[in-house]
Amino acid sequence: MLRALELAATPGVPLGPNPRVGCVLLDADGATVAEGYHRGAGTPHAEADALARAGDRARGTTAVVTLEPCNHHGRTGPCAQALIDAGVRRVVFAQSDPNPTAAGGADTLRAAGIQVESGLLTVESGLLNKVWTFAVTHRRPFVTWKFATTLDGRSAAADGTSRWVSSPAARHDTHRLRALCDVMLVGTNTVEVDDPLLTVRDEHDQPLATQPLRVVMGERELDPGRRIFNGDAETVHLRTRDPEQALEQLFARDRQHVFLEGGPTLAAAFLKAGLVDEIVVYVAPMLLGAGRSAVADLGITTIADAFRPRVTDVTVLDAPDGQSEPNVRITLTPGES
């Protein structure tokens, strides 16, 4: 199973919209007959990949798979039936499929007389597809809210200047995190005031070949000349102020991970709606004393009602140029969703 997880995490495999899955076929002595993994939507699933490599040698084998074999016809046929047709004797999988459309493969296999076992390294498999599992379970994208702030919680100075609150190392790290998502989301005010490009760029400030969907949320009309509407990536304007409606529309587009980089008003809207699943904050060693807050009014009037996310990681990002001050990246979770 560890090898199957390794295969599933093969570099270059898309992070969505399909789960990453690995499969290893073993003979009666436990020797590997064939291996396979899923390479993205529209390509053979891990089990089908392994079975194709094994050919007739698949008969009588044990299939070790990181996810319950699917039980539905999508772009490809059901893996449960493929395993049955290949004469596989036993199937061991880690994580049960949380997608109601594809679930049920284990029951189909058992009905065909195949021995089925589940639950081996379930946690590890779930972590491999954390965002996908969340999205199909909650029927909405996972939301990561990222912001940069000074020690006193300011995202911009009193005159509106905000470049650069974060350090070069923090900005480079931000692009690394952007590349893990399939949506970059901001509000109309951020587009008007900051004119962001919202692309994923490398260390030379060049856009990567694959870009997340750029999304602007809000009812206000926008200047089509803003940089977010250039040809570097696809852009969608969701004309709503309701975070839940925005996520519903994005989920319908098969998007699973939203990187929320909007201003304090949009951040507050998502927080008050309970629709932030992860927080990443870059703290710069500076004080402003005045200026724009990192988040707008949350309606909290007493310390007892304070929003208290749980810290899961603290990392110091050293300055590669040896000149700028290091920033601290703090990763937090609002709790169980």
From TrEMBL:
Transmembrane segments: none annotated. It catalyses: 5-amino-6-(5-phospho-D-ribitylamino)uracil + NADP(+) = 5-amino-6-(5-phospho-D-ribosylamino)uracil + NADPH + H(+); 2,5-diamino-6-hydroxy-4-(5-phosphoribosylamino)-pyrimidine + H2O + H(+) = 5-amino-6-(5-phospho-D-ribosylamino)uracil + NH4(+). Pathway: Cofactor biosynthesis; riboflavin biosynthesis; 5-amino-6-(D-ribitylamino)uracil from GTP: step 3/4; Cofactor biosynthesis; riboflavin biosynthesis; 5-amino-6-(D-ribitylamino)uracil from GTP: step 2/4. Keywords: Hydrolase, Metal-binding, Multifunctional enzyme, NADP, Oxidoreductase, Riboflavin biosynthesis, Zinc. The keyword Ubl conjugation does not apply. Residues 317-337 are annotated as: Disordered. The keyword Metal-binding applies. Pfam families: dCMP_cyt_deam_1, RibD_C. Residues 1-117 form the CMP/dCMP-type deaminase domain. InterPro entries: APOBEC/CMP_deaminase_Zn-bd, CMP_dCMP_dom, Cytidine_deaminase-like, DHFR-like_dom_sf, Eubact_RibD, RibDG_C, Riboflavin_Biosynth_HTPR. Its cofactor is Zn(2+). It comes from the Bacteria. In the N-terminal section; belongs to the cytidine and deoxycytidylate deaminase family. In the C-terminal section; belongs to the HTP reductase family. Converts 2,5-diamino-6-(ribosylamino)-4(3h)-pyrimidinone 5'-phosphate into 5-amino-6-(ribosylamino)-2,4(1h,3h)-pyrimidinedione 5'-phosphate. NCBIfam families: eubact_ribD. This is Riboflavin biosynthesis protein RibD. It comes from Nocardioides caricicola. The gene is ribD.
